[in-house]
Amino acid sequence: MKSITINGSQRESVGKVATKALRNAGQVPCVVYGGDKPVHFAAAELAFSKLVYTPNAHTAVIALDNGTTINAILQDIQFHPVTDKILHIDFYQLFDDKEVTMDIPVRVVGNAPGVMAGGVLRLNQRKLKVRALPANLPDFIDADISELEIGNKLYITKLANDSYKFLQPENTVVAQVRISRAAMKAAQEAAKEAAQADK
């Protein structure tokens, strides 16, 4: 999995006044949990754009001005309800031997025969919750739709992998091919015409 480096400065004062001053200066207050004790730091809001405003999943390398680097994943983010500015970010520190939970984007691969026959592909899950060791976290989860006919569903069990485990129920539908409205209407009209012809 790709990682994005965030250059930040460790902060000592974590009260409301200090936090407000940081935000006014265009900085985002952050905390890294998961280690011996939480690490408070701040970084420019722009530094998070590639981590936050993307459909892809990334890990983060937090490089602090005191020379410390921490590998982490984004755990929680708070936005301002009106301006959508980032107010606060929680990170979770990664350790090679400790499993973590992360939302991984689903990537559709293959061509569904059902779509070629006039059906419509519906992606029910754009992301799936995965638990794995940091080294085993995938960039994407490939959903192979090449066997889906009209009416077929692709269940999460088909995407099973030894490197990570899914946290959704086994009956979770990841994708399905449904009959299109136009095809359904045509079928209904054909049935109507056939019924009238029988009279």
Automatic annotation (TrEMBL):
Domain Large ribosomal subunit protein bL25 L25 as annotated: residue spans: 6-91
Keywords for the protein's UniProt record, in alphabetical order: Ribonucleoprotein, Ribosomal protein, RNA-binding, rRNA-binding
One Pfam family matching this protein: Ribosomal_L25p
Lyase is among the record's keywords: no
Domain of life: Bacteria
InterPro entries named in the record: Rbsml_bL25/Gln-tRNA_synth_N, Ribosomal_bL25/Gln-tRNA_synth, Ribosomal_bL25_b-dom, Ribosomal_bL25_C, Ribosomal_bL25_long, Ribosomal_L25_dom, Ribosomal_uL5_bac-type
Domain spans labelled Large ribosomal subunit protein bL25 beta: 99-179
GO CC field: ribosome
Assembly notes: Part of the 50S ribosomal subunit; part of the 5S rRNA/L5/L18/L25 subcomplex. Contacts the 5S rRNA. Binds to the 5S rRNA independently of L5 and L18.
PANTHER family: RIBOSOMAL PROTEIN L25/GLN-TRNA SYNTHETASE, ANTI-CODON-BINDING DOMAIN-CONTAINING PROTEIN, RIBOSOMAL PROTEIN L25_GLN-TRNA SYNTHETASE, ANTI-CODON-BINDING DOMAIN-CONTAINING PROTEIN
Known role: This is one of the proteins that binds to the 5S RNA in the ribosome where it forms part of the central protuberance.
Family: Belongs to the bacterial ribosomal protein bL25 family. CTC subfamily.
Protein name: Large ribosomal subunit protein bL25
Organism: Pseudofulvibacter geojedonensis
